[in-house]
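Lab meeting minutes (informal)
Scribe: AK
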Amino acid sequence: MILQELVRRTNDTIRRLHELEGKMENVQERSSSLESTSIAKLKSLNDKLSELEGRIKDMDSGIARLESGMEKISKQMGKMARQSDVKELERMFELLSPIRNEALARSFRQEQAVQ
């Protein structure tokens, strides 16, 4: 009887031990799978990060070119006549126009008088 109880307990302990070993193997497999997945995702994130860094550098150089172009345009705009300058010139031409018209009329009259 005692021997049978000891055998039964030993068998029960061995069965539990096998169950625990199976559970440990499952945990190790899951851990290994998670590690592989994590490594793959980390590599993917690093690749995307590198791509973004490249795009940001391209954008920086594009912005620098735009700023340079804007500076050139600004300098050229400074050299151009302003609308107020153009209007002032128009007024001056209008003032000169009657004088010129009068001079033309005088020379026309002189030519007709000669004829």
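Next up, CB showed the second protein from the same session:
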Amino acid sequence: MDSRTPTPPRTSFSSLLLNADWRISRAIYWVFTWLCLVGLMALGIYALVKCYKGIFEYQDAWYDLSLVEWSFFGLAILLVVRLIKLTHLSGACWSYSLNSLLKILGLFVVIKMLLLAVAAVADEAKPIGALQLYFQLDQLYGATFWLVVVSLSLYMAAPPVKPTHQTTDVNMSNDADNVRHEPVLPEPSELNALATPTNQNQNKDAS
């Protein structure tokens, strides 16, 4: 082998371990992130099912709806129209709004489970009837709670859209300030016209 041929760099065992550790940690992070997203979306579907069952709890179609539930349907239609309009204006994909809706619903379910856990811990530390109070409130206002949760989620799932007229005015003013005013040079014909009276005056003085 020629001595002038460069020898390939040797990879140390520690660098191999670091590379493998980095890849394993990234894989675990990726799997954990997707499990959390899928879990939130599954909880969001659960919230929609609970809302549906709370509305049609007596299986009597539209005849057992209360005034609050009819109001919810009207509000939900308006919020869905708003969601579609803002999604179209922002240029986002429809899957973005749907995923946001399910994730926000899932977060509300997580908050509800945390309240249940707090009540359980409070009863474990000192029996004050927190769990009993939680289940009583859930039985009385559980259906209304899911209606409010779905309404808030529909409102919050819309992508943000900034108003256009303000930004347009600001950009126009900035462009006007940034315009560079170049000096305007006179045309040759204008220079000759200006020089002609001067030459005539000089000839009169000489005569």
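CB comment: The chain is about 75% helix and 0% strand.
No objections, moving on.
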